[in-house]
Design goal:
Elements (H helix, E strand, L loop, with lengths): L12 E4 L5 H10 L3 E4 L4 E2 L6 H12 L4 E4 L2 H13 L3 H10 L1 E4 L2 H9 L13 H9 L7 E7 L4 H9 L3 E7 L2 E2 L5 H11 L5 E4 L2 H13 L3 H10 L2 E4 L2 H8 L13 H16 L1 E5 L2 E5 L3 E4 L2 E4 L2 H12 L7 H7 L8 H14 L5 E4 L3 E4 L5
Parallel strand pairs: 1-2, 1-9, 4-5, 4-6, 6-7, 9-10
Antiparallel strand pairs: 3-8, 11-12, 12-13, 13-14, 15-16
Length: 372
């Protein structure tokens, strides 16, 4: 990384709410310079202990499905592996092999073929909406359709099939519940509502629902939604995940394809645009971020006091900001205006050019802003 190309997410804080593949996602974000906050919003119910999955599997064995829909590769494989553990794997494969198999996307298709089975059809878009359109032009009256779920219950999808006359059996693979220890999630909620993070990533709809439920229990759901609408970017892996927030009027960022790498690229594209402030000051290029500033291409980490002062000045570039206003932005400063002077001194030293911050006698401070 050259001096003119600092890490794209250096100086930004991004939260990871995923339970599965959290370390992989976090590593991808850290590689791009982000400060990552881990706060699992859900926990996976172990497959071997999942009585609901075992019951759904037994229902499938008692009467063979006419049609089976595999929605995810990992979910379909997990279902078969769990059935093997219960001694039901061979019977389940036979029942599924006797049915018409549909795969939502290439990963589900690969899992079907790895099990020695063959899919009849798969949509090019990897969309459940296209799967539904494909089915609804057929006569579904009296058919038993098994839908392998992967956390998301897909109520609209199932209701549409039932309205067309089908009997639908949902197979809940990898069910999610709220984490046993909600302390990290509570801390994240405090950070989001206080504007302490730049983005929150979601890789499943249950994670969004769980975070909203936790906020509601704490009486902070409205503050959370307002923060997402204002200055914290919610980045969702796909439209099903995003729908939980979109239904509440929260605009979300989504990648063009539901993959972790694409999710990270969406963070890189949108967070600096939404959360950064780029200014020309005294001949210098300043990119003001959450806990750092990029000066002429070089990342300069700042302590909380100088960072708070710079953020306040950058929010109103060129305007004189009084000591009293700056004092109110300083964490834990109380009523001592000397704390503002100390923070300004440290900020000037960190920026390398004291003239970037101008002192306006008896009034306060301002950025030596160069309007373009």
């Amino acid at each position: 990384m050259t001096a003119d190309q600092p890490p794209a997410l250096a100086g930004y804080t991004v939260a990871v709410t995923a339970a599965r593949r959290r370390d992989e996602l976090g590593a991808l974000l850290e590689r791009r310079g982000a400060r990552v906050v881990y706060a699992p919003a859900i926990r996976l119910v172990p497959l071997d202990d999942d009585t609901e999955l075992q019951l759904a599997t037994t229902v499938c064995l008692e009467r063979s499905p006419d049609l089976t829909i595999a929605t995810t590769g990992i979910g379909f494989r997990g279902w078969l592996e769990a059935a093997d553990g219960w001694g039901l794997g061979d019977d389940l494969r036979k029942r599924l092999g006797d049915s018409r198999l549909l795969a939502r996307g290439p990963k589900a298709r690969g899992a079907i073929r790895a099990a020695g089975l063959t899919e009849e059809w798969s949509p090019a878009s990897e969309s459940m909406s296209e799967v539904l359109d494909h089915l609804l032009v057929q006569d579904l009256e009296g058919l038993r359709i098994v839908v392998q779920l992967h956390g998301e219950p897909l109520p609209d999808f199932i209701e549409a099939l039932e309205a067309a006359g089908a009997e639908v059996v949902g197979v809940p693979v990898y069910r999610w519940e709220r984490p046993d220890d909600t302390t990290p999630l509570d801390r994240l909620l405090d950070q989001v509502t206080a504007g302490g993070v730049d983005a929150v990533t979601f890789t499943s709809a249950p994670a969004v629902a769980s975070m909203l439920a936790q906020a509601q229990d704490r009486g902070a759901e409205q503050q959370l939604l307002e923060a997402f609408c204002r200055d914290v970017v919610p980045v969702c892996v796909g439209p099903v995940t995003a729908a939980v927030l979109e239904r509440r009027g929260v605009p979300t960022v989504q990648p063009d394809r539901p993959r972790l790498g694409n999710l990270v690229r969406a963070v890189v594209e949108h967070v600096p645009r939404r959360c950064g402030k780029r200014l020309q000051v005294r001949g210098h290029r300043l990119d003001v971020r959450r806990h750092a500033v990029v000066v002429d291409g070089e990342v300069v980490a700042l302590a909380s006091g100088p960072m708070a002062v710079l953020s306040s000045l950058a929010a109103q570039p060129g305007r004189v900001v009084s000591r009293r206003e700056l004092l109110s932005s300083l964490p834990g400063a109380g009523s001592d205006e000397h704390a503002v002077e100390m923070a300004v001194t440290r900020l000037r030293a960190a920026l390398g050019d004291p003239s970037i911050i101008q002192t306006i006698v008896k009034r306060g401070y301002r950025l030596a802003f160069d309007p373009i």
